[in-house]
Design brief:
By secondary structure, this protein is α/β, with parallel strands linked by helices. It has 9 helices and 7 strands, in the order βαβαβαβαβαβααβαα. Strands 3-2-1-4-5-6-7 form a 7-stranded parallel β-sheet, sandwiched between helices. Helix 5 links the parallel strand 5 and strand 6. The mean pLDDT is 97. The chain binds NADP nicotinamide-adenine-dinucleotide phosphate.
Length: 256
């Protein structure tokens, strides 16, 4: 990890901020991007040698500017973590075109722009590591009101795996990873489109520090597909292996 240049999008709070501080403690040089400059500055205070770039990362030019600034400062990027993301609290029956657009912008386009911005550099070096932060909801739609968020993370997972396939033979030293957390104790719930419950109040929420540790382990030992808790993979396998998915889904929504 020492001296690795690690770009982290969505680094002004939550998982991205925790990851920035964690990798900085391990000797990496984090490059922090998000919209709120003041919040980025606060995070950077705890990250030695951090570079910050403020901008809306649903805009392609702003994501390209992050890659440019990182390369201008460090001459290389070792790892790029697409961590920007936003939830939604609205069921399928009520989704608007605008809701869909916002979910695609925050959870798919931002990551796609990140992948495309850093790939030419990774290809020229013949190495690099791209990590897309997804969600267990990108595999199993456990929560009805997360509807288009869940769908957007499914979309992201498909793009991530497709990129891995694209590079597998031509660039075997460029790693592409999906990291899927479950509920994490951050402002995610409150920041969701149309509001919602505070993720920090949910039972068994994982800490952002714990998720950061798993992402750092993925950087140290690249793997294609990672869950931030072992049991999540088991749950995904149970869902897709079920002979009656509907029965499982009814269990989730049963009043307790
Ligand atoms: N928390 C959970 O329960 C949970 C569970 C599974 C997966 N995840 C995923 O984990 C990732 C991080 O989530 P989190 O829990 O840390 O959420 P969070 O606390 O709400 O933080 C989101 C981060 O993304 C940034 N961001 C949002 N929209 C942006 C935009 N348009 N341009 C630039 N930056 C933007 C925010 O910064 P600014 O506001 O400063 O722009 C913030 O730094 C997301 O991809 C999320 O889907 C979270």
């Amino acid at each position: 990890m020492k001296d690795q240049v690690i770009v982290i999008t969505g680094a002004s709070e939550g998982i991205g901020a925790a990851l920035a501080k964690h990798v900085s403690r391990l000797g990496a040089l984090p490059v922090l991007a998000a919209r709120r400059e003041a919040a980025l500055n606060q995070v950077a205070k705890e990250c030695l040698g951090a570079l910050i770039i403020a901008g809306d990362l649903t805009v392609r030019a702003n994501v390209e500017a992050v890659a440019k600034a990182a390369l201008a400062q460090h001459r290389r990027i070792d790892v790029w973590v697409n961590n920007v993301g936003r939830g939604i609290s609205r069921p399928v029956s009520e989704l608007t075109d605008e809701d869909l657009q916002q979910m695609l912008d925050a959870n798919v386009k931002s990551a796609l722009y990140g992948m495309q911005a850093v790939l030419p550099h990774f290809k020229s070096r013949g190495q690099g590591h791209l990590i897309n932060v997804s969600s267990v909801l990108g595999r199993v739609p456990y929560v009805a009101v997360r509807s288009a968020y869940s769908a957007s993370k499914h979309f992201l997972n498909a793009l991530t795996a497709s990129l891995r396939l694209e590079l597998a033979l031509s660039h075997p030293h460029i790693h592409v990873s999906t990291v899927s957390p479950g509920v994490v104790a951050t402002g995610f719930g409150l920041n969701a489109l149309h509001g919602g419950v505070d993720s920090r109040a949910l039972p068994r929420a994982q800490s952002a520090d714990d998720v950061a540790r798993v992402i750092a382990e993925t950087i140290a030992t690249p793997k294609a597909d990672v869950y931030t808790r072992r049991e999540y993979q088991q749950q995904v396998m149970e869902y897709f292996g079920a002979t009656d998915m509907g029965a499982l889904e009814r269990e989730w929504v049963k009043p307790r």
